[in-house]
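User: I'm putting together notes for a lab meeting next week and I want to include a structural view of one of the chains we've been expressing. I don't have a solved structure, so I'd like a prediction I can at least talk through. The sequence is below, exactly as it appears in our construct file.
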Amino acid sequence: MPTVPILMPQLGESIAEATVVRLGVSVGDAVRADQEIIEVETNKAVMSVTTLCNGTVSEIRAQEGVSYTVGSLLGLLDVTEEEVARTGVDTIEANEARRAAAQQAASPGDAEANLHFRIDDEEAYEESPQIVPTVKGLPVPAGTMGAHYISPRMRARMDDLGLREADISAVAGTGAGHRVTVEDLERFLNYLEGWPSSHASTMRQSVADAMRRSWTRPLATVGLPVLLDRVLDHRRTHTPKPGLTLYMLRAFALALAEKPSAAGYLIGDKIVHPRSFDIGVAVQIKDGVVVPVIRKADQKRLADLIAEYDDLVERGRDRHLGEDDCKGGIATVTNFGMFGLTLGTPIPLPNETLILGIGAGVKKPVWSDEVEAFLPATVSDLFITFDHRVVDGGDVGLLLKRVSEILQKPEDL
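Assistant: Thanks for the context. Below is the predicted structure for the 413-residue chain, given as structure tokens.
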């Protein structure tokens, strides 16, 4: 009976590996074409591996909690000759026959060079390599000094351990000029031996990598208190009620459309300007954050965005976003006020120049020129963190002021 491999698929053009989180079938189970049989987690979402045809599961090689590269062999499926003819799927037997034919066609002098073709059946496919985590955070003991120049020997040892420069920032260097040596690193690792630790999930590693890359730029933050009473009054009269974050996202998109240079991205000696005002929204999930993107947020009315926004946020929390849902944003909105926080300095994604942070609304006395007295009002502090290479604080301040002005006329959103 022909055998069809179950392979780790290419889940997105930028995704090289995924972690198995749930096996949905067992050996002996009958499956149908396009059935979701293995749930995997990428650095962006939870997705599914599906079958190419009808058949019976004859072997499961994947293990829950283990990461596999694209093309790894996750299992085997026994199928009928009729099913192979119907679907045209590639079988292990057909693959081996092609390799045998290629070897036979080679000249005798090439025999040794073609030894790597001499593999049996399923070994023609990658043998499910396990991935060593690329991010390993280290606790920071008190009284240590930062790392400085890294020698080639030290760099090689870090590569062996899967460490980045940020991971060794807590290591006190004893070399020349406080240089961190391999011996310093080994002593530090021995010092940490036995400390409580936990595995860094794929999502946590992704967030760590993105923030590390973002922090290579000179980032700055400005803030402004914004009155929310008119927004809150408008929200009470609207069905369904838009989320406060959506009001901010829409106002942010409109303000950026008026000043697109603020969202430019520096590449060499050029600033690349946005061609579409696609704004991401940060969604907190277990052990990380995902950022689905609202497309053309400046061109859609607030009422028309509610369903799209709610769907993206819900799928983000369930980790069912596709790669296209999360790419191409030019800026992000994050509402840390939902946790009761009034102040924050959010960090923009590596491919974005700006991020708008929303603090919690707080009742405060605000001076009214109309009645010449202090009146109670709901105030939220908004913050924009930006790449200072691209735009300056004054321009971002004007952008933030424009966001505030737009929010005072929520009926126009």
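A couple of points you could mention at the meeting. Residues 109-147 have pLDDT under 50 and may be disordered. The chain has three domains: 3-124, 152-199, 219-412.

User: Perfect, that's what I needed.
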